[in-house]
Write a structure and sequence with these properties.
Layout lengths: L20 E6 L16 E6 L7 E3 H4 L4 E2 L9 E4 L9 E2 L6 E2 L3 E4 L4 E3 L1 H4 L4 E2 L8 E4 L10 E4 L6 E2 L5 E4 L4 E3 L3 H4 L10 H25 L18 E2 L3
Pfam families: C1_2
Keywords: Repeat
Protein name: Protein VACUOLELESS GAMETOPHYTES
Length: 240
């Protein structure tokens, strides 16, 4: 009886990894993290051909352009790096303020760094609980207004003035650029929202875990955020 030969799937090379990769389909229950953007992997993707190597890439991360021009940093192009150019092997994203340790869009002249996911955020988005579109702006609406800080209208957390936000100029309504921009983390009002909220919380938990890991790699921790709870106004005077 003739023996079956193993199926040889075509493989490809990517400059971010030393081994060949081949295509596979990732499912939510696999709980795989992309080695490029460090977010959960689902759908068509690439994995390392070596069985003992846990390297995975979204197809979109595999196909990222090597250089982009971004509205947030108009004077210089941003170059795709497959690892941070710093001794700590981590970086703080100038868009969302969270840490990263893998793919990065980087300006070497300004040390300006952006997650690859943040670099392709949509210019506008809709929220079911707000009547107007929210526009992506590249710093807090309070920037330059001495003694005032801006608060996310969803989580009530202070937004650092240089971070990006989704903002409605008509209502002065704004949110963080990630989970707060899409979902509320509390008070689900409609049937089916609960699952969406849990998904947002799970993604937030993954980001927090990556942030803690990056913190361990950095000797000097940065912690200048202030958390507020309750129905407080989004602007706060800061005493000097």
């Amino acid at each position: 009886m003739a023996s079956r030969k193993p199926v040889n799937r075509p493989s490809v090379k990517h400059p971010s990894h030393k081994h060949p990769l081949h295509i596979f389909k990732a499912h939510v229950e696999d709980e795989i993290i992309c080695s490029g953007c460090e977010l959960e992997l689902t759908g068509e993707a690439f994995k390392c051909t070596k069985s003992d190597c846990d390297y995975f890439l979204h197809k979109s991360c595999f196909d990222l352009p090597r250089e982009i021009n971004h509205k947030s940093h108009p004077n210089h192009p941003l170059t795709l790096l497959h690892s941070p150019p710093y001794e700590s092997n981590a970086y703080g994203c100038d868009a969302c303020g969270q840490y990263g340790s893998s793919f990065i869009y980087h300006c070497s002249k300004c040390q300006y760094d952006v997650h690859v996911g943040c670099a392709f955020l949509p210019d506008t988005l809709e929220r079911e609980d707000h009547e107007h579109s929210l526009t992506l702006v590249f710093n807090s609406p309070c920037k330059g207004r001495e003694g005032m800080v801006f608060m996310c209208d969803v989580c009530k957390e202070t937004v650092t003035e240089n971070l990006w936000v989704y903002h409605c100029k008509v209502c002065d309504y704004g949110t963080h650029v990630h989970s707060c921009a899409v979902y509320e983390n509390h008070e689900a009002k409609k049937r089916g929202e609960e699952e969406a909220v849990l998904e947002a919380l799970r993604m937030e938990s993954l980001r927090n875990a990556r942030m803690e890991l990056a913190n361990m790699r950095i000797s000097n921790k940065i912690n200048n955020s202030v958390i507020h709870f309750g129905d407080e106004p989004r602007y706060h005077w800061v005493r000097k």
